[in-house]
């Protein structure tokens, strides 16, 4: 039996490989590399096929498929969101993803994305803050100190240049964990007892909590002028973090309005409330921050193009390394019309 | 470092495993098992979340995601269709799929589906023919002798009881290949020089050709009364096989009308042309074949529930076998909120 062609084996980046790759590249350089890649892909936004993610909701969570394509490369991510999972010792979010060649439909990369999603979410926040936050922002409040919080902090340090992160979580153990993990990062880490305390002096306020419900993590009187709000946690129908009054005072920037109006903070607003697409700020077609006292809000829900960018980064980064294994995913008979003969001969 | 939990490893059925599984179970029993499973899932059709597949079209082909869920188990398939691939020695269709637990979102099976799709497509055709074909059908015409043709023939033999298959393809080499592969199957195999010759005496006519264009594989005068048409190849916009006049003479049965009206033979008809959903025939809510002289047409485009059924079959069939490997797909920190700590400690 002839050996299958190289194309029948798809490079697979396991969880262990991903962690090795991060240590090989360095977490902060990798966050910067992904942020730059995302910004470059936002710059060519009209080139992409875009569709709201395909969600399957249940009482306890959601499973989503997020596809996109730039005409040469197709990518998609599988991701779940189950806030109750942590009680059973499982991840709230797990994910994997794939790139394939549009010309043949053959996959070219299969990768874990639980860790990679954490990196791309942080990289997206940091890229958006680089575009929208007040010039010279040095202090970030991090509200919600779960699995995403350290990645957010380091990406803001690396890409935006913040020097201090102020941590708050309703669970002090989460804050302790984040503070411990960020020791030695070069950031001044300030654990706080209230959200109000965390927000003091911050130019960037990141909210990232996991409850699947309408919550009010920030009330109107907590948010002063001249800040950038980076709202990560409101990312599915019925799940928001900000008081509506804040939204009315802010200039709102989104990834893909068709998706954000369903899933983001702006699900609380009229469907025709003005929002600006972030990619238009990147290309110069729309204005970003125009004054020091302005409140900018990045109402982030996560979009397929960001996963695409992250997967492309990984595809390029593993070249010439051992951080993948070839996976026997694709049947490859000698004669492509003779799939049956291949199966028969394997007997 | 603690070892990750069992749930972090997803059973992966490679191409090689799938072939071993087929030889372990036997191809015909496996086709019957999948056909029975599909019929059982059609019987509980209303239990499933249904959505038309999510397609990304290019000039040369299509890449599709096909998700569904029964509320307990979620499944999806990735599948491409690139008719020009065979010229480069590649498969027209490659696929893989996944099952996961709705309660946690964690994947529980990851499998090759290039081979499995061939089996489920044949099993679906055979199940539909068992429901719709004339009683005592013994002869099938197989128009198009590509990768799907042998699986179709064996499934019809095993599930419907046909004794003779009459092969025709515009490329005689394809017919020779199919005839060679079917020798020893117990079927009388009759290679034919024209489609008309292949159809002589057949109660079941299966069309399965791959061109991505409106083609007329069967013209009106070729199809007499009292046959069952199993039309597989018309399965995406712009790709059909049957002359419209045949459709007007036939009673048409479909999987999921919302998808079939876009992709099936009936894209040639008015959007309100009467069709019957196959699942309703299975439950008895609608009539199938009502007379000997009737022409029944199964306008098959392939639906996510069939892939779900096939994946569930595989999930159960590999239990207690070695036909899978555990894949390190899911990050699993000791503390689920401490993804960062897990990454950090891997250094």
Automatic annotation (TrEMBL), chains A, B:
Alphabetized InterPro entries for the sequence: NAD(P)-bd_dom_sf, ODC_Mu_crystall, ODC_N
Protein name as catalogued: Ornithine cyclodeaminase
Species annotation: Sulfitobacter albidus
């Amino acid at each position: 039996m002839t050996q299958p062609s190289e194309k029948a084996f798809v490079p697979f980046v396991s969880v262990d490989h991903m962690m090795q790759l991060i240590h090989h590249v360095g977490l902060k350089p990798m966050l910067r590399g992904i942020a730059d890649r995302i910004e470059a892909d936002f710059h060519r936004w009209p080139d992409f096929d875009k569709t709201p993610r395909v969600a399957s909701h249940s009482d306890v969570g959601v499973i989503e498929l997020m596809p996109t394509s730039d005409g040469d490369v197709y990518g998609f991510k599988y991701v779940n969101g189950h806030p109750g999972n942590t009680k059973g010792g499982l991840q709230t979010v797990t994910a994997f993803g794939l790139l394939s060649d549009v010309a043949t439909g053959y996959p070219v990369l299969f990768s874990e994305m639980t860790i990679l999603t954490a990196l791309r979410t942080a990289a997206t926040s940091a890229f958006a803050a680089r575009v929208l936050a007040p010039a010279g922002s040095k202090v970030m409040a991090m509200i919600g100190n779960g699995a995403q919080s350290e990645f957010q902090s380091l990406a803001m340090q690396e890409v935006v240049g913040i020097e201090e992160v102020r941590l708050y979580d309703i669970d002090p153990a989460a804050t302790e964990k984040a503070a411990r993990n960020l020791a030695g990062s070069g950031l001044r880490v300030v654990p706080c007892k209230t959200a109000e305390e965390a927000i003091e002096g911050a130019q960037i306020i990141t909210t990232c909590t996991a409850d699947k419900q309408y919550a009010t993590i920030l009330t109107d009187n907590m948010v002063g002028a001249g800040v950038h709000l980076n709202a990560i946690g409101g990312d599915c129908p019925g799940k928001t973090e900000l008081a509506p009054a804040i939204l009315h005072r802010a200039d709102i920037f989104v990834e893909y309005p068709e998706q954000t109006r369903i899933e983001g903070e702006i699900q609380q607003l009229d469907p025709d409330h003005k929002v600006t697409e972030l990619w238009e700020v990147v290309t110069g077609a729309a204005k970003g921050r125009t004054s020091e006292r302005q409140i900018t809000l990045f109402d982030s829900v996560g979009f397929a193009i960001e996963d695409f960018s992250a997967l492309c980064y990984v595809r390029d980064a593993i070249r010439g390394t051992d951080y993948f294994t070839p996976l026997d995913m694709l049947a490859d008979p000698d004669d492509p019309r003779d799939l049956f003969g291949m199966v028969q001969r394997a007997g």
